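Project outcomes to date are best conveyed with an example. Our students and postdoctoral researchers have been running inverse folding experiments weekly, and each run begins with a structure described purely in tokens. The record below, which covers 416 residues, was selected by the lab manager from last quarter's runs and is presented without edits.
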């Protein structure tokens, strides 16, 4: 059996909840409040849920810029391009900072250098990846000294922690995503957590002004998810879709390659699009609450697979494993490997029946859409060209992970 790179975390009972809601049998009243209270208790912060994480980022930044009159946002360019759009649409100026060495994160030194140079900084936005930034405590202390809030983007790190604190419970404002592809998933979903009560009140007000997502929109989202479920089911994947996509990659058929890229339409947004201005429905909150029950056991399964990769892939020429997975703390949605020969390795794995992906984050500092904010970030550029993500989702068989590691080992000599 060939397994796809990714499977949705949404389960049968969550789809059933959506069906029951669409058909009007149940409304799931009160789940929004329960979800906000559950997250708030977990993070020891107040929480507002949104229909999308990015909308929370937009509103927090927009309000901070209004309050301070400052505009510059320190951030890594290695993120979802639409996060950069939210900074710009909110009235901010992204100031991109390169990552350190082989890490996926900018280090303390880079933040302190940027702070010395920039005088108009409103906030620093730190993205948590498979692991939290190792320098997070130092970066936070440095920002605090300058009176600049730390914003934690935990969109792909829900459930992770750093030195005993939950990710999202460290900075002044933090953001979570419960979108379709996330580890706690509904069709769309996001949240902001903070101890700043006036910001929370502001967020509640703006969100209350949005129309609720309609049953029809939920129905369409449900159908889209079911299509993804069908494509990525190991049986259909093995029989057809793996071969279809592997053919597309091998022969560089652009439209096939583009079918599953989330970064197809990279364009500058100077305003929050109307399509983002929606209020999350109670059924999405009910689905998230259900997903939360499995979050911890799913995370432990992922980290166990990640440890297998990390043990097997150390010490190879041309391969860098940028992290040591930690069972107690790491979110580890996928396992990153940096390969000098990334594109060849990707094709080799595909042709051996191992689906994996080149990641969808880009060096936003060099994208034509953000030309105005361009900054040289050569290490992020290298990341973009060398990163490959190996699958660790719960249900991904250990024997497939071993096979992926074996193929990589066979094509890369051990370091002398
Ligand atoms: C780092 C990061 N931040 C924010 C988001 C946006 O999340 P949402 O789709 O819920 O707006 C994503 C989505 O993948 C992300 O990867």
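After processing, the design step wrote out the following sequence:
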């Amino acid at each position: 059996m060939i397994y796809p790179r990714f499977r949705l975390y949404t389960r049968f009972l969550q789809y059933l909840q959506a069906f029951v809601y669409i058909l009007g049998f149940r409304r799931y009243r009160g789940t929004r409040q329960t979800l906000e209270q559950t997250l708030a208790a977990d993070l020891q912060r107040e929480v507002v849920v949104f229909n999308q994480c990015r909308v929370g980022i937009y509103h927090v930044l927009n309000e901070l810029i209004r309050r301070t009159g400052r505009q510059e946002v320190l951030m890594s360019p290695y993120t979802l391009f639409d996060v950069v759009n939210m900074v710009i649409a909110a009235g901010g100026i992204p100031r991109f900072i390169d990552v350190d060495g082989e890490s996926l994160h900018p280090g303390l030194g880079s933040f302190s250098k940027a702070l010395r140079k920039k005088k108009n900084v409103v906030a620093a936005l730190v993205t948590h990846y498979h692991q939290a930034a190792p320098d997070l405590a130092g970066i936070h202390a440095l920002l605090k000294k300058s009176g600049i809030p730390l914003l934690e983007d935990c969109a792909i790190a829900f459930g992770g922690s750093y030195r005993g604190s939950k990710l999202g419970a460290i900075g002044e404002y933090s953001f979570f995503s419960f979108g379709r592809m996330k580890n706690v998933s509904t069709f769309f979903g996001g949240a902001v957590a903070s101890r700043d009560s006036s910001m929370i009140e502001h967020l509640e007000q703006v969100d209350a002004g949005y129309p609720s997502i309609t049953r029809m929109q939920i129905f369409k989202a449900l159908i889209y998810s079911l299509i993804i479920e069908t494509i990525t089911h190991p049986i259909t994947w093995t029989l057809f879709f793996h071969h279809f996509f592997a053919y597309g990659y091998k022969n560089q058929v652009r439209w096939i390659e583009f079918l599953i890229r989330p970064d197809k339409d990279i364009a500058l947004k100077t305003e929050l699009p109307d399509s983002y201005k929606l209020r999350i429905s109670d059924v999405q909150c009910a689905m998230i609450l259900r997903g939360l029950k499995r979050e911890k056991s799913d995370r432990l399964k992922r980290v166990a697979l990640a440890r297998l990769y990390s043990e097997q892939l150390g010490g190879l020429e041309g391969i860098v494993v940028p992290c040591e997975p930690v069972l107690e703390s790491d979110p580890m949605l996928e396992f990153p490997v940096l390969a000098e020969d990334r594109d060849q390795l990707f094709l080799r794995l595909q042709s051996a029946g191992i689906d994996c992906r080149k990641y969808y984050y880009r060096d936003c500092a060099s994208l034509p859409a953000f030309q105005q904010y361009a900054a040289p970030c050569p290490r992020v550029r290298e990341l973009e060209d060398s990163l490959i993500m190996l699958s660790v989702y719960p249900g991904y068989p250990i024997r497939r992970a071993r096979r992926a590691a074996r193929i990589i080992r066979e094509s890369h000599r051990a370091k002398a």
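The chain has 14 helices and 14 strands. The longest strand covers residues 121-127. The training component of this project remains on track.
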